[in-house]
Each structure stands twice: as C-alpha cells, then as structure tokens.
C-alpha cells in the first residue's frame, strides 16, 4: 500500500481543521443574544432544515403540513431555510441567522462546542439509523461483492470522496479506522462534485447520505456496496436550538417540539409514505418521488448494507442516542474536530421531549420506518 497510516492521520487532521474553520467562521464577533420577545407573544423564527437529508425529513413534513401552526402563538411567522449539509445550518445558527436546526450527528455535536461564539443545544432526536447517513457507494464497474465487509476492504488504496464536516465524514473515518482500511485519497467533495466524479469515472467510491444515495443508484451512476448496518455503526439526526431561544421562550420550545412529535408520527405511518415522498420531491430539486420513496422506505439487499428498519424515531434522548453522542464526541475529539472529549452537561437537553412524551402518554421510540419492497411503491402510487 502506498498510503501509510501516518498519512491517513494527516488527512484526518486536515479534515478536522477544515471542519473547525467552517464551524468557527462566525467567531470574528461574538453573536449577541437575540430578543425573542415574551412568553405568549407571536414570534418570528427561522428554521434551518435539509430536504436533502432523509433522516431529518420531519422538517419536510413540518414545512409541508404546517404542523407548527397548531401550537405556536397566533400571528407567529416561520421561515424555512434549506441547507445542503448540516455545517451550513450550524454556521447560520452561530451567526444568529437561524434559530432552530435540523442536522446530522457530527454538525449537531460540533455545534454545542462552539459556545464561545453562540450557545447551541441539542433538544431532541430526529432519527437513529444505520443507513441514512452511512452509505458507501462505488463506481459502476467495481466488482460485485459478496458482502458489505468485502466491499469495504476493496476501498483500501482507492480514491474515496466525502463531504467533510458531515455525518458521513465521521462515519467514514470511524469505519476506516475500525476496519484498518487506508484510501489512497480521502477527498473533500460536496454532493454535486461527487455526482460529477462518478459520471466522469474519476471516483472509486464515496460515502454519502440519503436521498442522494438512492438518486445516484437509480440514475445508474453508482452502486450501493455497504452501510453502517455492515459494521454496526449508527448515524443520527438532531434537533438543535439556540440557548437564548430556550431561555426566553420555553413556550416556543414546547410548541415546536409538540409539532415535531406530530411530524415524526406522520413520518412513521406507512400509509403516509407516498405523501412524504411527494412533499420531499417538492422541496428539493433533481429528485423524483420514486427516489425519495426509496431513500426513506425502500428495501436494499443485506449484502449491500440494507437494513430492515430504515429509521427509528426515538424523539427524545434515549440511552441508544446518548451512546451515539458519547462515542461520537470521543471520536471527534480524537481526530481534533472538537476540543473536548465530553460535552458540557447542558449541551444536551432531553427534559422538554421527556415532559411532552409523558403529557401525551407516549414512550420512546415513538415509531419506526420499516423497509418496503419496491412492489409496495407501485401499489401506493
């Protein structure tokens, strides 16, 4: 192998520096505490969300069905801002331009460590999965592998791309370390560049999230070879809020989280699969309803990392979610993405979601999205 472990560590460190720079960009001036008004008053808030990240599609449902209108004070105004990846949303929250964020695990965890810029907290879980943000794709002329494990070993010495600073970045580095795989190049590329790379046959593989993974497969540009299910690695999505919003407007926090619970329950009901796919395709460009349906509800072969449960909806911070946060924090510290190996106690605030579950007589997880055969898509059309 021409790519030494020391070189891989240098690449990982470079990625960490890139992430740190991106997240710290607003630190030129400490973001002032915003004025959100008094409890009970109408509020103007901006929501950063990702229709291009399937595990956070409760945000898609929230926007499309306007479930928040039932709970927010009358006269409130809600704006939704699309982020192509979580780091973009985090930077906007740090700068005071967005108030609530739907993000993946890595940007969510990193955001809570930037309290010298602005105080951001994790208040809920959007979803827990093994194959929403943890998907390995390979070029179309890659070998046909018998298993995902075999496919991951094939990546040794290959050119692999990932959007650095994303949940896929954390996953890829963790898997390469665990499986002792050393790519010849670990490239920082966004979704568009990765798509072009596969089209031009300049990439051996990429680690990407849904729904882009399903789109690239359906367009015949790449094939799915493994996922977090292959190596028992989980990914998660988190709902984050600015601490000044939480402090000043606990009524808004409770209102939004009640609506979020409604959205997650809607997402988990298989009867709503086609409507969810339609809403997602309306809020994102370049995706068909079939691609969107496949990314959330479609079944994939076990040999390529397919999982029977596409998404578990804990809603609150369960022991499994806390385990992901703890292990991911330790790992992110080890590659110097963050400066702490343990999050401050107030960084994760499960008390709001726990209280709402109790009030509504529910327990976590509140639902699961079970994989369906493609024949079910045709029946639901």
Structure, described:
The chain is of the alpha/beta class. The chain has two domains: 232 residues, Periplasmic binding protein-like II (D-Maltodextrin-Binding Protein, domain 2, 3-Layer(aba) Sandwich); 100 residues, Periplasmic binding protein-like II (D-Maltodextrin-Binding Protein, domain 2). Helices cover 42% and strands 17% of the residues. The chain has 16 helices and twelve strands. The chain has a five-stranded mixed β-sheet with strand order 2-1-3-10-4, sandwiched between helices. β6, α6 and β7 form a beta-alpha-beta unit. α1 packs across α3, α8 crosses α13 and α12 packs across α13. The radius of gyration is 20 Å and the shape is globular. The N terminus is likely disordered.
Summarize this structure as a short list of keywords or feature phrases.
12 strands; disordered N terminus; alpha/beta; D-Maltodextrin-Binding Protein, domain 2; five-stranded mixed β-sheet; 42% helix; 381 residues
């Amino acid at each position: 192998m021409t790519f030494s472990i020391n070189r891989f560590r240098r690449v990982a460190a470079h990625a960490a520096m890139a992430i740190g720079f991106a997240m710290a960009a607003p630190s030129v001036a400490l973001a002032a505490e915003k004025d959100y008004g008094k409890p009970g008053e109408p509020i103007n808030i901006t929501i950063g969300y990702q229709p291009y990240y399937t595990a956070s599609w409760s945000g898609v449902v929230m926007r499309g069905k306007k479930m928040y209108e039932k709970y927010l004070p009358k006269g409130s105004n809600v704006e939704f801002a699309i982020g192509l990846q979580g780091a973009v949303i985090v930077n906007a929250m740090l700068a005071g331009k967005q108030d609530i964020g739907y993000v993946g695990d890595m940007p969510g965890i990193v955001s809570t460590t930037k309290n010298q810029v602005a105080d951001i907290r994790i208040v809920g879980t959007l979803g827990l999965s093994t194959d929403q943000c943890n998907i390995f794709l390979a070029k179309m002329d890659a070998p046909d592998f018998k298993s995902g494990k075999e496919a991951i070993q094939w990546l040794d010495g290959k050119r692999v791309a990932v959007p650095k600073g994303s949940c896929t970045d954390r996953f890829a580095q963790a898997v390469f370390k665990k499986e002792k795989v050393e790519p010849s190049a670990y490239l920082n590329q966004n979704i568009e560049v990765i798509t072009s790379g596969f089209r031009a046959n300049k990439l051996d593989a990429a680690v990407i999230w849904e729904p882009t993974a399903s789109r690239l497969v359906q367009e015949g540009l790449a094939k799915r070879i493994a996922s977090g299910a292959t190596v028992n690695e989980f990914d998660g999505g988190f709902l984050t809020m600015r601490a000044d919003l939480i402090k000043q407007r606990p009524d808004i926090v409770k209102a939004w989280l009640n609506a979020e619970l409604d959205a997650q329950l809607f997402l988990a009901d298989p009867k709503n699969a086609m409507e969810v796919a339609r809403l997602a395709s309306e809020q994102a460009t370049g995706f068909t309803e079939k691609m969107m349906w496949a990314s959330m509800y479609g079944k994939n072969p076990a040999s390529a990392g397919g999982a029977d449960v596409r998404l578990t909806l804990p809603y609150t911070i369960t022991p499994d979610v806390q385990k992901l946060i703890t292990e991911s924090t330790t790992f992110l510290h080890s590659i110097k993405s963050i400066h702490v190996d343990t999050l401050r106690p107030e960084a994760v605030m499960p008390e709001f979601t726990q209280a709402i579950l109790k009030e509504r007589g529910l327990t976590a997880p509140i639902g699961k999205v079970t994989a369906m055969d493609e024949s079910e898509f045709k029946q639901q059309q």
